[in-house]
Specification:
Chain B: GO terms for molecular function: RNA binding. The complex is a heterodimer of chains A (240) and B (240). Chain A has 240 residues and is α+β, with helices and mostly antiparallel strands. Chain A has 4 helices and 13 strands. The longest helix of chain A is centred in the last third of the chain and has 27 residues. Chain B is an alpha+beta fold. Chain B contains 4 helices and 17 strands. The longest helix of chain B has 15 residues. Chain B starts with a strand and ends with a helix. The chains are: A alpha+beta (240), B alpha+beta (240). At the A-B interface, strand 3, strand 9 and helix 4 of A face strand 1, strand 2 and strand 3 of B. Strand 9 of chain A pairs parallel with strand 1 of chain B, so a sheet runs across the interface.
Chain lengths: 240, 240
Amino acid sequence: MEVDREDGRTQNQLRPLACSRNVLHRAHGSASWYQGDTKVLAAVYGPKAGTRKNENPEKACIEVIWKPKTGQTGKLEKEYEMILKRTLQSICILTVNPNTTTSIIIQVVNEDGALLPCAINAACVALVDAGIPMKHLAVAICCCVAKSGYVILDPTKLEEQKMKSFAYLVFPNSVHSVLTGGSVQGEPMEHGIITSVTHGIMSVDDYFYCLERGRAASAKLSDFLRRSLQQHPTDSSKAG
Amino acid sequence: MEEKQSGSPASLIDSTVVPGDVVLDLSSMTNQTIKLGGGLRQDCDAISVMKAGTLRFSKPNKYWVESSQKRYTPCVEDAVLGIVVDSKADNFLIDIKGPVLAFLPVLAFEGGTRRNIPKFEVGTLLYLRVVKANFGMNPELSCTDASGKAAEFGPLKDGYMFETSTGLSRKLLSSPTCPVLEALGKKLSFEIAAGLNGRVWVNAATPDTIVVVANAIMNSESLSGAQQIIMVEHLLKNIQ
Protein backbone atom coordinates (compact mmCIF):
# COMPACT_ATOMS: atom_id res chain seq x y z
CA MET A 1 0.00 0.00 0.00
CA GLU A 2 1.53 3.33 -1.03
CA VAL A 3 1.59 5.85 1.74
CA ASP A 4 2.38 9.54 1.38
CA ARG A 5 4.79 10.75 4.00
CA GLU A 6 5.57 14.44 4.18
CA ASP A 7 9.28 14.13 3.56
CA GLY A 8 8.79 11.73 0.65
CA ARG A 9 10.02 8.57 2.42
CA THR A 10 8.41 5.19 1.94
CA GLN A 11 6.81 3.28 4.81
CA ASN A 12 9.94 1.40 5.82
CA GLN A 13 12.57 3.98 5.00
CA LEU A 14 14.69 5.41 7.83
CA ARG A 15 15.99 8.96 7.97
CA PRO A 16 19.69 9.67 7.22
CA LEU A 17 21.87 8.37 10.06
CA ALA A 18 25.12 9.86 11.28
CA CYS A 19 27.25 8.66 14.19
CA SER A 20 30.53 9.91 15.70
CA ARG A 21 32.57 8.45 18.53
CA ASN A 22 34.90 10.22 20.96
CA VAL A 23 33.38 13.66 20.42
CA LEU A 24 33.95 14.92 23.99
CA HIS A 25 37.45 15.45 25.34
CA ARG A 26 36.91 14.89 29.06
CA ALA A 27 34.34 12.11 29.03
CA HIS A 28 35.67 8.56 29.20
CA GLY A 29 33.44 7.59 26.29
CA SER A 30 31.16 9.71 24.14
CA ALA A 31 29.07 9.49 21.01
CA SER A 32 26.66 11.55 18.99
CA TRP A 33 23.83 9.97 17.02
CA TYR A 34 21.80 11.87 14.43
CA GLN A 35 18.62 10.44 12.88
CA GLY A 36 17.43 13.09 10.43
CA ASP A 37 16.86 16.14 12.63
CA THR A 38 16.79 14.30 15.95
CA LYS A 39 20.24 14.76 17.51
CA VAL A 40 21.44 13.25 20.78
CA LEU A 41 24.82 13.40 22.52
CA ALA A 42 25.79 10.70 25.03
CA ALA A 43 28.70 10.80 27.49
CA VAL A 44 29.92 7.94 29.69
CA TYR A 45 31.99 8.37 32.84
CA GLY A 46 33.31 5.32 34.58
CA PRO A 47 33.63 2.81 36.00
CA LYS A 48 34.20 4.72 39.21
CA ALA A 49 34.50 3.23 42.69
CA GLY A 50 31.44 2.89 44.90
CA THR A 51 27.75 2.28 44.23
CA ARG A 52 24.69 4.32 45.18
CA LYS A 53 22.92 3.56 48.42
CA ASN A 54 20.31 0.94 47.57
CA GLU A 55 22.20 -0.80 44.80
CA ASN A 56 23.66 -4.29 44.96
CA PRO A 57 27.41 -3.97 45.68
CA GLU A 58 28.18 -7.29 44.00
CA LYS A 59 27.38 -5.82 40.62
CA ALA A 60 28.27 -2.71 38.72
CA CYS A 61 25.68 0.06 38.93
CA ILE A 62 24.51 2.11 35.95
CA GLU A 63 23.26 5.64 36.46
CA VAL A 64 21.54 7.60 33.70
CA ILE A 65 21.03 11.36 33.63
CA TRP A 66 18.80 12.79 30.92
CA LYS A 67 19.17 16.45 30.06
CA PRO A 68 16.37 17.86 27.86
CA LYS A 69 17.02 20.55 25.29
CA THR A 70 15.11 23.21 27.22
CA GLY A 71 13.36 23.40 30.54
CA GLN A 72 13.83 21.56 33.78
CA THR A 73 13.86 17.81 34.23
CA GLY A 74 10.44 16.45 35.06
CA LYS A 75 8.52 13.19 35.08
CA LEU A 76 9.03 12.49 31.39
CA GLU A 77 12.80 12.74 31.77
CA LYS A 78 12.71 10.46 34.82
CA GLU A 79 10.76 7.92 32.78
CA TYR A 80 13.30 8.04 29.96
CA GLU A 81 16.10 7.64 32.50
CA MET A 82 14.46 4.55 33.95
CA ILE A 83 13.85 2.94 30.54
CA LEU A 84 17.42 3.62 29.47
CA LYS A 85 18.81 2.30 32.74
CA ARG A 86 16.91 -0.99 32.45
CA THR A 87 17.87 -1.40 28.77
CA LEU A 88 21.55 -0.73 29.39
CA GLN A 89 21.62 -2.93 32.48
CA SER A 90 20.49 -5.85 30.37
CA ILE A 91 23.21 -5.39 27.75
CA CYS A 92 26.16 -4.59 30.02
CA ILE A 93 28.00 -7.35 31.87
CA LEU A 94 27.56 -6.16 35.43
CA THR A 95 29.72 -8.74 37.18
CA VAL A 96 33.07 -7.70 35.68
CA ASN A 97 33.61 -4.64 37.89
CA PRO A 98 31.63 -5.13 41.11
CA ASN A 99 30.95 -2.18 43.39
CA THR A 100 31.50 0.47 40.72
CA THR A 101 29.22 3.06 39.11
CA THR A 102 29.09 3.97 35.46
CA SER A 103 27.31 7.25 34.71
CA ILE A 104 25.70 7.91 31.35
CA ILE A 105 24.59 11.44 30.55
CA ILE A 106 22.25 12.01 27.61
CA GLN A 107 21.96 15.52 26.23
CA VAL A 108 19.18 16.21 23.73
CA VAL A 109 20.52 18.57 21.09
CA ASN A 110 17.45 18.60 18.87
CA GLU A 111 14.16 16.75 19.07
CA ASP A 112 12.23 15.71 15.97
CA GLY A 113 10.54 12.37 16.63
CA ALA A 114 11.96 9.01 17.75
CA LEU A 115 13.91 10.63 20.57
CA LEU A 116 14.22 7.67 22.91
CA PRO A 117 15.48 5.22 20.24
CA CYS A 118 18.04 7.81 19.13
CA ALA A 119 19.21 8.17 22.75
CA ILE A 120 19.48 4.40 23.23
CA ASN A 121 21.60 4.11 20.07
CA ALA A 122 23.84 6.98 21.17
CA ALA A 123 24.24 5.51 24.68
CA CYS A 124 25.20 2.12 23.22
CA VAL A 125 27.95 3.61 21.03
CA ALA A 126 29.21 5.74 23.94
CA LEU A 127 29.47 2.63 26.15
CA VAL A 128 31.50 0.87 23.46
CA ASP A 129 33.74 3.94 23.16
CA ALA A 130 34.37 3.86 26.93
CA GLY A 131 35.24 0.17 26.87
CA ILE A 132 32.49 -0.98 29.24
CA PRO A 133 32.15 -4.78 28.86
CA MET A 134 28.90 -5.71 27.09
CA LYS A 135 27.13 -8.92 26.13
CA HIS A 136 26.01 -7.53 22.77
CA LEU A 137 24.86 -4.22 21.32
CA ALA A 138 21.35 -2.79 21.10
CA VAL A 139 19.65 -1.12 18.16
CA ALA A 140 16.49 0.89 18.75
CA ILE A 141 13.73 1.89 16.37
CA CYS A 142 10.34 3.60 16.54
CA CYS A 143 7.28 2.20 14.72
CA CYS A 144 4.00 4.08 14.40
CA VAL A 145 0.55 2.69 13.69
CA ALA A 146 -1.84 5.00 11.82
CA LYS A 147 -5.64 5.08 12.11
CA SER A 148 -6.03 3.24 8.80
CA GLY A 149 -3.77 0.44 10.05
CA TYR A 150 -0.49 0.92 8.16
CA VAL A 151 2.82 1.00 9.99
CA ILE A 152 5.59 3.53 9.35
CA LEU A 153 9.14 3.51 10.73
CA ASP A 154 11.23 6.32 12.22
CA PRO A 155 8.57 9.06 12.34
CA THR A 156 9.24 12.77 12.56
CA LYS A 157 7.64 14.72 15.40
CA LEU A 158 4.61 15.74 13.31
CA GLU A 159 4.02 12.18 12.17
CA GLU A 160 4.32 10.92 15.76
CA GLN A 161 1.67 13.36 16.92
CA LYS A 162 -0.74 12.48 14.12
CA MET A 163 -0.51 8.72 14.58
CA LYS A 164 -2.89 6.60 16.61
CA SER A 165 -0.14 4.87 18.54
CA PHE A 166 3.58 4.17 18.38
CA ALA A 167 6.06 1.74 19.87
CA TYR A 168 9.75 2.09 20.70
CA LEU A 169 11.48 -1.25 20.14
CA VAL A 170 15.03 -2.24 21.07
CA PHE A 171 16.56 -5.36 19.50
CA PRO A 172 19.96 -7.02 19.96
CA ASN A 173 22.35 -6.43 17.09
CA SER A 174 23.25 -9.07 14.52
CA VAL A 175 26.49 -10.84 15.39
CA HIS A 176 29.32 -12.28 13.34
CA SER A 177 29.80 -15.77 14.62
CA VAL A 178 32.08 -18.70 13.89
CA LEU A 179 29.41 -21.02 15.20
CA THR A 180 27.17 -22.56 12.59
CA GLY A 181 23.59 -21.88 13.53
CA GLY A 182 24.35 -20.16 16.82
CA SER A 183 20.94 -19.94 18.37
CA VAL A 184 19.11 -19.99 21.63
CA GLN A 185 16.50 -22.75 21.76
CA GLY A 186 16.09 -22.92 18.02
CA GLU A 187 15.74 -19.21 17.24
CA PRO A 188 18.54 -16.90 16.13
CA MET A 189 19.54 -14.30 18.69
CA GLU A 190 18.29 -11.40 16.60
CA HIS A 191 14.74 -12.63 17.13
CA GLY A 192 15.00 -11.55 20.75
CA ILE A 193 13.80 -8.22 22.01
CA ILE A 194 15.30 -6.12 24.78
CA THR A 195 12.83 -3.31 25.39
CA SER A 196 9.37 -2.38 24.12
CA VAL A 197 7.58 0.85 25.10
CA THR A 198 4.17 1.56 23.60
CA HIS A 199 2.03 4.69 23.60
CA GLY A 200 -1.57 4.83 22.53
CA ILE A 201 -3.96 2.05 21.62
CA MET A 202 -3.05 -0.63 19.11
CA SER A 203 -4.41 -4.10 18.45
CA VAL A 204 -2.31 -7.18 19.13
CA ASP A 205 -1.98 -7.86 15.38
CA ASP A 206 -0.77 -4.31 14.81
CA TYR A 207 1.80 -4.78 17.55
CA PHE A 208 3.17 -7.98 16.03
CA TYR A 209 3.29 -6.31 12.63
CA CYS A 210 5.29 -3.45 14.20
CA LEU A 211 7.67 -5.98 15.70
CA GLU A 212 8.20 -7.61 12.32
CA ARG A 213 8.86 -4.32 10.51
CA GLY A 214 11.10 -3.11 13.33
CA ARG A 215 13.11 -6.30 13.33
CA ALA A 216 13.71 -6.07 9.59
CA ALA A 217 14.92 -2.50 9.92
CA SER A 218 17.13 -3.39 12.88
CA ALA A 219 19.34 -5.42 10.54
CA LYS A 220 20.14 -2.26 8.55
CA LEU A 221 20.78 -0.30 11.74
CA SER A 222 22.99 -3.12 12.99
CA ASP A 223 25.14 -2.96 9.85
CA PHE A 224 25.45 0.79 10.14
CA LEU A 225 26.47 0.45 13.78
CA ARG A 226 29.13 -2.13 12.94
CA ARG A 227 30.56 0.04 10.16
CA SER A 228 30.71 3.11 12.35
CA LEU A 229 32.48 1.14 15.11
CA GLN A 230 35.05 -0.15 12.63
CA GLN A 231 36.23 3.30 11.71
CA HIS A 232 38.84 5.15 13.67
CA PRO A 233 37.28 6.98 16.67
CA THR A 234 37.96 10.45 15.34
CA ASP A 235 36.16 9.86 12.02
CA SER A 236 32.42 10.14 11.80
CA SER A 237 30.23 7.81 9.81
CA LYS A 238 27.18 8.74 7.78
CA ALA A 239 24.49 6.76 6.02
CA GLY A 240 21.91 8.34 3.78
CA MET B 1 19.25 -10.59 9.40
CA GLU B 2 21.18 -13.85 9.11
CA GLU B 3 24.38 -14.22 11.08
CA LYS B 4 27.49 -14.12 8.95
CA GLN B 5 28.98 -17.56 9.37
CA SER B 6 32.70 -17.88 8.89
CA GLY B 7 34.20 -21.29 8.40
CA SER B 8 37.15 -20.93 10.77
CA PRO B 9 38.29 -18.61 13.56
CA ALA B 10 41.13 -17.37 11.37
CA SER B 11 38.69 -15.22 9.42
CA LEU B 12 37.90 -13.01 12.41
CA ILE B 13 41.52 -12.59 13.54
CA ASP B 14 42.97 -9.13 12.81
CA SER B 15 39.53 -7.79 11.95
CA THR B 16 37.37 -5.43 13.99
CA VAL B 17 34.92 -7.19 16.29
CA VAL B 18 32.04 -5.72 18.28
CA PRO B 19 30.53 -6.96 21.56
CA GLY B 20 28.51 -10.09 20.98
CA ASP B 21 30.59 -11.60 18.16
CA VAL B 22 31.47 -15.23 18.78
CA VAL B 23 35.08 -15.83 17.86
CA LEU B 24 35.76 -19.40 18.95
CA ASP B 25 33.69 -22.53 19.25
CA LEU B 26 35.16 -24.69 21.97
CA SER B 27 33.05 -27.73 21.25
CA SER B 28 35.18 -28.41 18.18
CA MET B 29 38.49 -27.98 20.03
CA THR B 30 38.84 -30.63 22.69
CA ASN B 31 42.08 -31.28 24.64
CA GLN B 32 43.49 -27.87 23.82
CA THR B 33 44.43 -25.13 26.26
CA ILE B 34 43.43 -21.67 25.11
CA LYS B 35 44.58 -18.50 26.84
CA LEU B 36 42.16 -15.57 26.73
CA GLY B 37 43.37 -12.01 27.13
CA GLY B 38 41.40 -8.82 27.64
CA GLY B 39 38.06 -8.24 25.96
CA LEU B 40 37.00 -11.88 25.63
CA ARG B 41 34.81 -14.01 27.85
CA GLN B 42 33.68 -17.60 27.93
CA ASP B 43 29.99 -18.33 27.52
CA CYS B 44 29.61 -22.13 27.92
CA ASP B 45 31.18 -23.44 24.71
CA ALA B 46 31.60 -20.18 22.87
CA ILE B 47 34.17 -17.43 23.33
CA SER B 48 32.48 -14.09 22.74
CA VAL B 49 33.68 -10.51 22.60
CA MET B 50 33.08 -8.02 25.44
CA LYS B 51 34.83 -4.91 24.08
CA ALA B 52 35.01 -3.59 20.55
CA GLY B 53 38.45 -3.69 18.98
CA THR B 54 40.75 -5.77 16.79
CA LEU B 55 40.96 -9.48 17.49
CA ARG B 56 44.56 -10.68 17.76
CA PHE B 57 46.07 -14.14 17.95
CA SER B 58 49.55 -15.15 19.03
CA LYS B 59 50.86 -18.67 18.61
CA PRO B 60 50.34 -21.15 20.06
CA ASN B 61 47.08 -20.38 21.82
CA LYS B 62 46.60 -16.75 22.95
CA TYR B 63 43.60 -14.71 21.84
CA TRP B 64 42.82 -11.15 22.87
CA VAL B 65 41.02 -8.00 21.71
CA GLU B 66 43.21 -4.96 21.20
CA SER B 67 41.44 -1.71 21.96
CA SER B 68 42.30 1.75 23.18
CA GLN B 69 40.37 3.41 25.98
CA LYS B 70 40.73 6.37 28.28
CA ARG B 71 40.36 4.21 31.39
CA TYR B 72 42.67 1.39 32.47
CA THR B 73 42.02 -2.22 33.50
CA PRO B 74 44.73 -3.21 36.01
CA CYS B 75 46.92 -6.20 35.05
CA VAL B 76 49.77 -7.77 36.99
CA GLU B 77 53.34 -6.66 36.13
CA ASP B 78 52.24 -3.46 34.38
CA ALA B 79 54.21 -0.27 34.98
CA VAL B 80 51.83 2.58 35.76
CA LEU B 81 51.91 6.20 36.86
CA GLY B 82 49.78 6.78 39.94
CA ILE B 83 48.75 9.85 41.90
CA VAL B 84 48.52 9.70 45.70
CA VAL B 85 44.97 10.39 46.86
CA ASP B 86 45.19 9.54 50.54
CA SER B 87 47.45 7.82 53.05
CA LYS B 88 46.40 5.32 55.69
CA ALA B 89 48.33 3.51 58.40
CA ASP B 90 49.36 0.59 56.19
CA ASN B 91 48.82 1.80 52.64
CA PHE B 92 48.82 4.79 50.39
CA LEU B 93 45.67 5.09 48.28
CA ILE B 94 46.68 5.68 44.68
CA ASP B 95 44.57 6.63 41.67
CA ILE B 96 45.66 4.71 38.56
CA LYS B 97 42.69 5.55 36.29
CA GLY B 98 41.10 2.18 37.00
CA PRO B 99 37.66 1.22 38.27
CA VAL B 100 38.83 1.38 41.90
CA LEU B 101 41.69 2.98 43.85
CA ALA B 102 44.87 0.93 44.30
CA PHE B 103 46.85 0.32 47.48
CA LEU B 104 50.58 0.90 47.85
CA PRO B 105 51.84 -0.75 51.05
CA VAL B 106 54.07 1.59 53.09
CA LEU B 107 56.79 -1.04 53.22
CA ALA B 108 56.92 -1.69 49.46
CA PHE B 109 60.11 0.31 48.93
CA GLU B 110 63.72 -0.75 48.68
CA GLY B 111 65.04 -0.98 52.25
CA GLY B 112 61.62 -0.04 53.61
CA THR B 113 61.07 -0.54 57.33
CA ARG B 114 58.57 0.81 59.83
CA ARG B 115 61.11 3.47 60.79
CA ASN B 116 61.68 5.07 57.37
CA ILE B 117 58.19 5.22 55.90
CA PRO B 118 58.20 7.79 53.06
CA LYS B 119 55.86 10.74 53.43
CA PHE B 120 54.02 11.45 50.17
CA GLU B 121 51.75 14.46 49.95
CA VAL B 122 48.36 14.14 48.28
CA GLY B 123 48.97 14.72 44.59
CA THR B 124 52.45 13.17 44.34
CA LEU B 125 53.13 11.40 41.04
CA LEU B 126 54.70 7.95 41.40
CA TYR B 127 56.03 5.39 38.94
CA LEU B 128 54.80 2.01 40.18
CA ARG B 129 54.46 -1.64 39.32
CA VAL B 130 51.19 -3.58 39.68
CA VAL B 131 51.72 -6.59 41.95
CA LYS B 132 48.21 -7.96 42.39
CA ALA B 133 45.08 -7.35 40.35
CA ASN B 134 42.44 -9.78 41.53
CA PHE B 135 38.75 -9.69 40.83
CA GLY B 136 36.73 -7.75 43.37
CA MET B 137 39.77 -6.49 45.31
CA ASN B 138 41.68 -3.23 45.09
CA PRO B 139 44.87 -3.67 43.05
CA GLU B 140 48.16 -3.69 44.94
CA LEU B 141 51.18 -1.75 43.78
CA SER B 142 54.86 -1.65 44.64
CA CYS B 143 57.80 0.73 44.28
CA THR B 144 60.28 -2.11 43.76
CA ASP B 145 60.77 -4.61 40.97
CA ALA B 146 60.26 -8.35 41.47
CA SER B 147 63.64 -8.81 43.15
CA GLY B 148 63.17 -5.99 45.65
CA LYS B 149 65.39 -3.33 44.03
CA ALA B 150 64.18 0.22 43.45
CA ALA B 151 64.83 0.09 39.65
CA GLU B 152 63.57 3.60 38.73
CA PHE B 153 60.24 3.16 40.55
CA GLY B 154 59.18 5.84 43.01
CA PRO B 155 58.25 9.52 42.98
CA LEU B 156 58.82 11.59 39.81
CA LYS B 157 60.08 15.08 40.54
CA ASP B 158 59.58 18.16 38.34
CA GLY B 159 58.55 17.61 34.74
CA TYR B 160 55.04 17.57 33.28
CA MET B 161 52.43 14.79 33.29
CA PHE B 162 49.68 14.47 30.70
CA GLU B 163 47.03 11.86 29.99
CA THR B 164 46.66 9.80 26.84
CA SER B 165 44.72 6.73 25.81
CA THR B 166 45.95 3.25 26.73
CA GLY B 167 46.58 2.48 23.06
CA LEU B 168 49.01 5.37 22.68
CA SER B 169 50.91 4.41 25.86
CA ARG B 170 51.28 0.86 24.57
CA LYS B 171 52.72 2.26 21.33
CA LEU B 172 55.16 4.43 23.26
CA LEU B 173 56.37 1.42 25.23
CA SER B 174 56.62 -0.96 22.27
CA SER B 175 59.90 -2.20 20.90
CA PRO B 176 61.34 -1.31 18.42
CA THR B 177 61.07 2.30 19.58
CA CYS B 178 58.04 4.22 18.48
CA PRO B 179 58.86 6.54 15.48
CA VAL B 180 57.81 9.73 17.26
CA LEU B 181 60.14 9.09 20.20
CA GLU B 182 63.02 8.21 17.90
CA ALA B 183 62.57 11.32 15.81
CA LEU B 184 62.37 13.51 18.92
CA GLY B 185 65.36 11.80 20.50
CA LYS B 186 67.58 12.62 17.53
CA LYS B 187 67.26 16.37 18.09
CA LEU B 188 66.19 16.89 21.72
CA SER B 189 67.35 15.63 25.08
CA PHE B 190 64.53 14.68 27.47
CA GLU B 191 63.46 12.09 30.02
CA ILE B 192 60.16 10.27 29.73
CA ALA B 193 58.14 7.84 31.86
CA ALA B 194 55.14 6.19 30.22
CA GLY B 195 52.57 4.24 32.23
CA LEU B 196 50.36 1.60 30.64
CA ASN B 197 47.39 3.28 32.32
CA GLY B 198 47.42 6.22 29.93
CA ARG B 199 49.68 8.67 31.77
CA VAL B 200 52.97 10.04 30.43
CA TRP B 201 55.53 12.17 32.29
CA VAL B 202 58.15 14.25 30.46
CA ASN B 203 61.09 16.13 31.91
CA ALA B 204 63.73 18.22 30.14
CA ALA B 205 66.11 21.08 30.82
CA THR B 206 63.83 23.84 29.47
CA PRO B 207 60.01 24.18 29.44
CA ASP B 208 60.09 24.68 25.64
CA THR B 209 61.46 21.20 25.10
CA ILE B 210 58.91 19.70 27.49
CA VAL B 211 56.04 21.37 25.62
CA VAL B 212 57.31 20.26 22.20
CA VAL B 213 57.75 16.67 23.33
CA ALA B 214 54.30 16.58 24.99
CA ASN B 215 52.57 18.06 21.94
CA ALA B 216 54.38 15.72 19.55
CA ILE B 217 53.30 12.67 21.55
CA MET B 218 49.69 13.84 21.86
CA ASN B 219 49.49 14.51 18.12
CA SER B 220 50.92 11.13 17.15
CA GLU B 221 47.92 9.08 18.23
CA SER B 222 46.20 8.71 14.88
CA LEU B 223 49.22 9.02 12.61
CA SER B 224 51.20 6.29 10.90
CA GLY B 225 54.98 5.94 11.39
CA ALA B 226 55.96 8.05 8.40
CA GLN B 227 53.38 10.70 9.23
CA GLN B 228 54.70 10.88 12.79
CA ILE B 229 58.23 11.60 11.58
CA ILE B 230 56.97 14.34 9.26
CA MET B 231 54.92 15.88 12.09
CA VAL B 232 57.92 15.89 14.44
CA GLU B 233 60.14 17.52 11.81
CA HIS B 234 57.50 20.18 11.28
CA LEU B 235 57.27 20.93 15.02
CA LEU B 236 61.04 21.06 15.48
CA LYS B 237 61.48 23.36 12.48
CA ASN B 238 59.26 25.93 14.16
CA ILE B 239 61.31 26.15 17.34
CA GLN B 240 64.79 26.18 15.85
